[in-house]
Amino acid sequence: MEESWDFDSAPPEFKQVQPVLIGLFAVSGTGWLINYFTTIRTAFRDRTPGVSLIALTNNLAWELVFAIFHPPPLLIATVIVRSWLFVDIFVLYTTTRFARASASSPLLKRYLPVFVAGGTLGFASAHWALSVQLSPIEAFYWSGMMCLVTMSASALGILVQRGHTRGASYGMW
């Protein structure tokens, strides 16, 4: 176990609230899984992507780094992060499937796989660099927060750009 993931050396105050934090993480993780399934269902229903490629590649990169290279030591956290990665691959498939049809840029239509691969590799290198610079646990939270901000901001941007709610649903929010 990496030293920075060592919860055994945590202060007693943290150990007192750790079960509550683990429970909240499990609830949050389940909520994100519901969001991913809803995103897939909504994209197939409306035939349009419900998430931006920037946010999606950022999320996928974060999940790759923290599901494979720096998995959390707690079993529940590892299971949740790896579940996110598994389901997010289907979100990526669904998004890219409908993004080609709805893309207004011929460059994006033609080179969509290159944009997705490049974005994922670029964001993965940034998440990896942050985990090396700070520590895996600090990068887990800080870069995870940046994924959340990117996802939220781009979801609002998609609504404004499209001028309608196709591709979105209350379950995704």
Question: Could you explain how this protein is built, in words?
Answer:
With 173 residues, the protein is mainly α. It has one domain (10-162). It is 77% helix and 0% strand. The chain is built from 6 helices and no strands. The chain has helices at residues 12-46, 53-69, 75-102, 106-110, 112-133, 136-162. Helix 5 packs antiparallel against helix 6. The protein is elongated, with a radius of gyration of 17 Å. The N and C termini lie far apart (35 Å). The chain crosses the membrane at residues 20-38, 50-69, 75-93, 114-134, 140-160. InterPro entries: PaxB-like (IPR039020). It is a multi-pass membrane protein. It is found in: Membrane. Belongs to the paxB family.
Secondary-structure blueprint of this entry?
Blueprint lengths: L11 H35 L6 H17 L5 H28 L3 H5 L1 H22 L2 H27 L11
Helix pairs in contact: 1-3, 2-3, 2-5, 2-6, 5-6
Give keywords.
single chain; 173 residues; mainly alpha; 6 helices; 77% helix; elongated; transmembrane helix; PaxB-like; transmembrane; membrane
Helix- and strand-based class?
A: mainly alpha
Q: What share of residues are in beta strands? A: under 5%
Instruction: Please work out how many helical segments DSSP would assign.
Output: 6
Q: What composes the largest sheet?
A: none
Give the proportion of residues in helices. Answer: over 70%
Compute the gyration radius: what is it?
A: 17 Å
Tell me the distance between the termini.
35 Å
The sequence of SSEs as H and E is: HHHHHH
Low-confidence stretches: none
> Total domains, how many?
1
Average residue-wise pLDDT: 84
What is the overall shape? elongated
Report the strand count: 0
